[in-house]
Amino acid sequence: MGLPYTVILTGGIASGKTTVSRLFAALGIVIIDSDELAREVVAPGEPALAAIVKRFGSGILDSDGALDRPRLRAIVFADSNARADLERITHPAIRQLMRTRLTAAESPYTILAIPLLAETGGRREADRVLVVDCPEELQLRRLMARDGSSEPQARAILAAQASREQRLALADDVIVNDGELAPLRDAVAELHARYLQLASAKRDASI
Ligand code: ATP
Questions:
Q1: Predicted TM-score of the model (pTM)
Q2: Strand partners of residue 61
């Protein structure tokens, strides 16, 4: 059986990806989150964790034997070879788990949340890309309100991400999340109807 109709959901930090995902989930759609998969493949007992220990030494584990993520992040931030090695270990494992989850998903179409799509090479083999968009000033305000970041901290986080334009260039569909929750729910319902149609057309074409 092929992969189900897949919609990648992406957007900048604090744009509203989680809020939008929950609205699709409430309509019965399975959401697969690439950040969650990335954590799962390096859990204790996973082959990718053993490979990371082999490459970076057992000092990369915390006292419970789990991956010391802040430490690993600091190492790969400072060393591009280390980053490439880490990606060679984790990316195939993540891709494989993603395919397994997509194939198992009992959903008329599936949403694959990839927050850093624009930063990590753009479009993948998905049927559609949905970008959650909002003005940067609003992202800043949400970041400061939610995480208690100062304005300079929040601006630095935004500056390290892809720009709004880079993300929008990847979009088939855009949800502008700059207002209340009610219009957001309407926008999700409209896209949901369209995705149901597209998914069913793809199924018919493959029979
Ligand atoms: P991150 O990239 O950090 O995971 P995200 O893109 O998943 O963030 P959310 O967590 O959905 O974004 O939203 C960021 C914050 O803004 C949350 O506190 C959320 O409740 C709030 N928020 C999002 N959309 C709206 C909206 N339309 N109205 C009011 N608050 C909102």
A1: 0.91
A2: 67
Q: What is the pLDDT of residues 68-80, one digit of tens each?
A: 999 999 999 899 9
How far is the centre of ligand 1, averaged over its atoms, from the C-alpha of 189 (Å)?
A: 18
pLDDT in tens, 88-131: 999 999 999 999 999 999 999 999 999 999 988 767 779 999 99
Burial (CB count within 10 angstroms: exposed 0-12, middle 13-18, buried 19+), residue 131: buried
Looking up tokens 């949800």 gives 175
Q: Which atom of ligand 1 is nearest to the CA of 19?
A: 11
Instruction: Give residue 49's region: left, alpha or beta (phi > 0; psi -120 to 50).
Output: alpha
Q: Given the CA of residue 13, which atom of ligand 1 is nearest to it?
A: 2
Mutating to test ligand 1, I would choose from 142, 161, 175, 176 the residue with most ligand atoms within 8 A of its C-beta, which is 142
